[in-house]
Design a protein that fits this description.
globular, 2 helices, mainly beta, 9% helix, five-stranded mixed sheet
Length: 235
């Protein structure tokens, strides 16, 4: 006596059930992709600045209030592949200082720099956007320098104790990412000098660097033209 083959009669039914079930699923919970953004205030002022994304105050998504001079937010999440009008406003008067339009790509990290080109009272501030590198190299620290010291009277020379690299950047210029392999050695300490006053050196200690981390150094200037800098991790 032949055994009945139960697979054949049930296979069409299974396929039909799968199709029917799939057609009943609604995509109501579609997840929109995100980008990450942070903001740097490099303008010397006694008044802090608010930043708006399509008329929404950025602290509604970042949890940070208005940014004072020489401060920055952490990364906060925004919807990707969407155009934003980004507007900087005086936190006391509400006066708009500058604005740009920008789209942020899915899964990318960005820094927005609020800056000026010189220290003249009539110079209008501006907003500049750069995409940040965050991919790790577990064998090194990666570091990039950007100069927004609009009160500095000369360019800035950057080198390490070993003299393995030397770069000179002016206002608005930035370097590529440098790999620092020997982060456990004082030889990896980084020095920054103004071209017109090389006897005065600022430094970034090797103790502030770690393998697998990516950093941005923002070079700024005080009212009196003295150089200062911020070492900020990207990841």
């Amino acid at each position: 006596m032949k055994k009945r083959n139960f697979l054949k009669p049930t296979l069409p039914f299974i396929l039909f059930a799968i199709v029917l079930f799939s057609s009943c699923i609604k995509n109501d919970n579609f997840i929109v992709g995100d980008s990450k953004v942070r903001i740097f205030n490099t303008i010397i002022s006694d008044t802090s600045t608010n930043f708006y994304f399509n008329e929404a105050l950025f602290n509604s998504v970042s949890g940070v209030t208005a940014l004072a001079t020489s401060t920055n937010s952490s990364y906060f999440v925004v919807e990707a592949d969407k155009e934003y009008k980004i507007d900087s406003r005086n936190s006391v008067t509400g006066t708009s200082n500058s604005e740009i339009k920008q789209m942020f790509a899915l899964g990318k990290n960005y820094s927005i720099y609020y800056t000026k080109t010189d220290s003249l009272p009539g110079t209008k501030p501006k907003l500049i956007v750069y995409q940040d590198t965050v991919r790790q190299d577990l064998k090194s620290a990666q570091i990039m320098f950007i100069n927004y010291g609009y009160t500095l009277r000369s360019k800035v020379i950057i080198t390490d104790r070993k003299k393995t690299f030397t770069e000179t950047i002016g206002y608005g210029e930035k370097t590529g990412y440098r790999q620092i392999l020997d982060v456990d050695s004082s030889k990896s300490t980084i020095f920054l000098n103004l071209v017109d006053s090389t006897g005065v050196r600022d430094s970034i200690s090797f103790r502030n660097l770690a393998k697998g981390k990516v950093y941005t150094v923002i070079i700024e200037g005080a009212k009196n033209g003295k150089m200062k800098q911020r070492l900020v991790p990207n990841n």
